[in-house]
Amino acid sequence: MEGHVYWTDDEVWAIRRAYLDGSGAQTLINTKINDPDGIAVNWVARSLYWTHMGTEHIEPHVLDRLGREP
């Protein structure tokens, strides 16, 4: 978690991360996600939150896992 940058990729509807130097990019979430927009990281709780464009929903995710809960 430390030493990473996190972003939403609206071209492929995914949440991604990479090392601060740009290497090691990986997709964290790309299922059950529609048009991700805003993103926030809670470093203390090791959680990620994002919004879906055009909705009033905020989605949570624990950063120690890849992918979404079923």
From TrEMBL:
LDL-receptor class B repeats lie at residues 3-45. SUPFAM superfamilies: YWTD domain. SMART domains: LY (SM00135). Pfam families: Ldl_recept_b. InterPro entries: 6-blade_b-propeller_TolB-like (IPR011042), Cueball_EGF_LRP_Nidogen (IPR050778), LDLR_classB_rpt (IPR000033). This is LRP5L isoform 6. It comes from Pan troglodytes (Chimpanzee).
